[in-house]
Each structure stands twice: as C-alpha cells, then as structure tokens.
C-alpha cells in the first residue's frame, strides 16, 4: 500500500463524525445506537505550501489514486490509517511556490 509521507505546512484540522443512529421518542427523548465496528472515522483538512516541484509530486500522488485507491497516512501523534482523498485544490502562489489543500477521509477495507 502506498504511503503519503508529506507533512502539512500548517496545522491540520481533524474532524471525527461518529456513525450513530438516533431513535427519537415523544417529548424530546432519544436513544442513540452506534452503527458498525469502525464508528469514528477521522477526516483531516491539510494544507501544503511548497515549491512547485514538490506540489507536483503531491498532486501526482493524489491523482494516481483518483479517490479510488486508499493509501496509508500517519498524522503526527495519531495511529496509522488508510485514507482516500476525494478532493484537493491547487493554488499558484507565485515565484515558484504553489499551495495545495486536501481532505483525507479514513476508510476501512
């Protein structure tokens, strides 16, 4: 499995949205039930600001997987996981420097 090894330039935003099924009763009462065994997938919003050549490599890595093939990613202080990147944005900053923003979503295979 390929590994994404670049470290983001800025602090990443980590989002966790547990998969829960709420059951609503009268008078505002509710009960919640977790769905599946992997109920808390992580999502990271990452930003990279690097030379155009290095952003080319990151862009090529993500393009090669095309949001279909997962890759390993280790975020600082977190366990390794399998992720997909369904969307990324590249920005031409100027003077040989580009930026790239991406969202990595944890998947279970």
Keywords:
Elongation Factor Tu (Ef-tu), domain 3, 109 residues, 6-stranded mixed beta sheet, 1 helix, mainly beta
Describe the structure.
This protein is mainly β. It has one domain: Elongation Factor Tu (Ef-tu), domain 3, CATH 2.40.30. The strands form two sheets. Strands 1-6-7-8-5-2 form a six-stranded mixed beta sheet, covered by helices on one side. The longest helix has 14 residues. It starts with a strand and ends with a strand. The mean pLDDT is 94.
Low-confidence stretches: none
Strand content: over 45%
What is the CATH topology descriptor? Elongation Factor Tu (Ef-tu), domain 3
Question: In total, how many beta strands?
Answer: 8
Shape: elongated
The secondary-structure class comes to mainly beta
CATH class: Mainly Beta
The total number of structural domains is: 1
How would you write the strand order of the largest sheet? 1-6-7-8-5-2
| CATH-defined architecture | Beta Barrel
Query: Mean pLDDT, as a whole number?
Result: 94
Give the distance, in angstroms, between the N- and C-terminal Cα atoms.
12 Å
Q: Treating each run of at least 4 consecutive H or I residues as one helix, how many helices?
A: 1
| Elements, N to C (H/E) | EEEEEHEEE
Largest sheet: 6 strands, mixed
Kindly provide the radius of gyration, computed on alpha-carbon positions and rounded to a whole number of angstroms.
17 Å
As a percent range, the share of helical residues equals 10-25%
């Amino acid at each position: 499995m390929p590994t994404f090894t670049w470290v983001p330039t800025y602090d990443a935003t980590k989002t966790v949205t547990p998969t829960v099924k709420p059951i609503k009763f009268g008078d505002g009462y509710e009960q919640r039930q977790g769905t599946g065994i992997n109920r808390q997938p992580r999502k990271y919003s990452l930003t990279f600001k690097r030379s155009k050549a290095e952003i080319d490599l990151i862009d090529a890595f993500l393009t090669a997987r095309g949001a279909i093939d997962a890759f390993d990613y280790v975020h600082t202080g977190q366990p390794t996981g399998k992720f997909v990147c369904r969307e990324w944005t590249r920005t031409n900053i100027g003077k040989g420097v580009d930026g790239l923003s991406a969202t990595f979503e944890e998947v279970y295979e």
